[in-house]
Amino acid sequence: MHARMNRSFVIAIDGPAASGKGTLAPLIAEYYGLAHLDTGILYRGVAWLVLQSGQDAGNPAIAAEAAERFSLDAVRGADLRTKE
User: Fold this and answer.
1) Do residues 47 and 60 make contact, with C-beta atoms less than 8 angstroms apart?
2) Given 11, 68, 78, 83, which is the most exposed site by the fewest CB atoms within 10 A?
C-alpha cells in the first residue's frame, strides 16, 4: 500500500454565457469541500471600477490600476451581473 499523497488541485469550468457555470461551480466546490472563486466577478468588478472612475475603459494601464485596487468591499452593492 502506498502512502497517500496530499495533493492540491484546481477545477476550472469553462463554457459559453448562460450555460450554467455559475450555478454548477459552487455546488461542485461545496460537494468536494473546495474553495470557490468566481473569476467572472473579478473581471466584472475591475471593469465596474474603471467605468465608475470615468476613465478610458480601453486603456490597459487604467484596467491594471483598477485590478490592483480591487476588493470585494470596493464593489459591494454593485450589480455586476447586468448586461451592461
Assistant:
1) no
2) 83
